[in-house]
Amino acid sequence: MDHYTVIDKDLTSRPHRMRDVDGRAFLASLRTTAVTRVEAGERVAQVSRNMGVSRSSVYEWLRQARSGPEKLQASPLQGRPSALSPDGLHDLATALLAGPESAGLTGRLWTRELVNELVTRDHGVSLTLTSIGRLLRSLGLWPRHSLVTWPDGSARLWKQRYAYIKEKAREQDALLMRGGLVDVSALLPRSSFPAAPFGFHLAYALIPGGPLLFRAYSGPANAATFLDFAAGLVAETGRPTCLITAHHPVFDLDECARGLAGLPLTVWVRTDGDARSLRPAPAPATASAPDLRPAVLGG
């Protein structure tokens, strides 16, 4: 799984035009990780949800792996070179995992504009937002779906639920956003020694066709890091916010729901065409505090 490889050592004298990193290598790592997890016993549906890829993609990668493991590897490098050297990408990845404030920048969450500010300051390269997106993709720090369209709205149940969510957001004068929580396995680039594997997870929120807000955290996703992201999202938007996200096991933790209770943020977790809002589990009823909830809770 050679995610980042120096193609020609002589090119290291030109640190801003390296051709050794692109999204193809990341996809190769993604394919290999998905196949390995399924072969280790995880269900395809679970791998699909946790890694943010479609089930059909996972089945296709399994088919390719059966015909030969080399089918999962990156195709020959093509297209424009990366703007940063492996050392530069290593330093950028480290800074992104630490967060904007640790890098001396203003903001709780990253945006492409803020990443560009970091790259310009630390690496002397000013890039377009498209190029910044390309850099983030090469590091795995990018949602693996369209930034323009909403989730599939063809299912009748989802259309009804989305209309309900949209009306709730309007009543609360809340900003409606799409987001996600995705575990990622990738390789940390470095030119002076072999690439080192590392794991992280990406929490993000966006307005389709609008800005992308994200944070990357080391290790697997957990309730504490999602709550940190949630607090940052509320601070950045400055208003009540409604976030629609795909399912992730973290959202099943009551700790996560309890932490959101004090924030002006409603998280709707979408599963199989429907969606549910995160709410803390009710305390068990006692003789002094009987359960007076109605038999059926709406919404």
Describe the structure in your own words.
The protein is of the alpha/beta class. The chain is 37% helix and 16% strand. It has a domain at 156-277: Nucleotidyltransferase, domain 5 (2-Layer Sandwich), CATH 3.30.420. It has 9 helices and 6 strands. It has a 6-stranded mixed sheet with strand order 3-2-1-4-5-6. Helix 8 (223-237) runs parallel beside helix 9 (254-260). The longest helix has 17 residues, at 23-39.
List the helices and strands and how they pair.
Elements: H1 23-39, H2 44-51, H3 55-67, H4 86-98, H5 112-123, H6 129-138, H7 156-171, E1 175-188, E2 196-206, E3 212-218, H8 223-237, E4 241-246, H9 254-260, E5 265-271, E6 274-277
Parallel strand pairs: 1-4, 4-5
Antiparallel strand pairs: 1-2, 2-3, 5-6
Stretches with pLDDT under 50, minimum 5 residues:
1-22, 191-196, 289-299
What is the topology, as strand order, of the major beta sheet? 3-2-1-4-5-6
Structural class: alpha/beta
Helical run tally: 9
End-to-end distance, in Å?
45 Å
CATH fold-level label of the domain at 156-277? Nucleotidyltransferase, domain 5
Order of helices and strands: HHHHHHHEEEHEHEE
Oligomer class: single chain
Percentage of residues in DSSP E strands: 15-25%
The biggest beta sheet is recorded as:
6 strands, mixed
Strand runs, count: 6
Nearest-integer average pLDDT: 76
What helical percentage do the residues reach?
25-40%
Q: What is the radius of gyration?
A: 21 Å
Examine the secondary-structure arrangement and name the CATH architecture of the domain at 156-277: 2-Layer Sandwich
Question: Globular, elongated, flat, extended or rod-shaped: what is the shape?
Answer: globular
User: Regarding CATH, which class of the domain at 156-277?
Assistant: Alpha Beta
